[in-house]
Amino acid sequence: MEIIPEIKAMPSLASESKVLLLETSGASGIVALGFGSTIVSHRILEIAKRHVSDMAPAIADLLKQCGWDVKNLDAIATGIGPGSYTGLRIGLMSARTLAMMTGARLLGIPTFEILAQHCLEAGHTKIEIIADAQQDKIYAQGFENNNGHLISAGELKIVSTAEWVANRDISFAIAGPGIDKIRSLISGRQDKIVEQSGNINKESFLALALKKLMSNDSDDPLNLQPLYLRRSSAEEQWDKRLEDKANRER
Predict the structure, then answer these.
(1) What values do phi and psi take at 182, rounded to 5?
(2) Which of 69, 70, 165, 209 meets the CB 3.0–4.6 Å disulfide criterion with 77?
């Protein structure tokens, strides 16, 4: 019978913690190692390399570069979306497996919080993160700076682009991977757009991971799921085929 290691105790100091970061929700993925609040090594995984079989060697290479043993990791942080359904599953599967293998604490970090944290660090006080949800819909969630701390200004939602444009609070600047989808729809208005690079900011990711770790908070490797409000396109197509078949048989 396989013995699963006990979950490690919380590090006594954030500055001494060793954290593996995995973020695979977008077109490219990030694998990084953080020691305290410093990123000591990282690698960008392009979309063609964003597979479970590519994660293990990328992680192993980074650990070797730093002279770390995977068993000495204090925590494994993974972005949980929203984002690419397949990408999220890849990152989550890798993080859950490593957490169960090593006893490191598993930290699920919402991807929109990472994006918003980076905006907060850049001086923005109110930010709305958006991403493409396909079928003329977007994911959207607002965040605010509360005395230097990121707080949610509402629940993550999926909404049609038309409804979002009509009802959004323009006091919130807009950021995130869904900007190109709505750019033409808000042309000529006073909405402020915050342009970001295509990759998740690893320092902001590490900051949120450390905050969760030092709050003695972690996730169950057996139960952590991606933050995904709609099913994958494959699942939706399967249901559509079943519905069409049922209609033909009536």
Answers:
(1) -115, 0
(2) 209
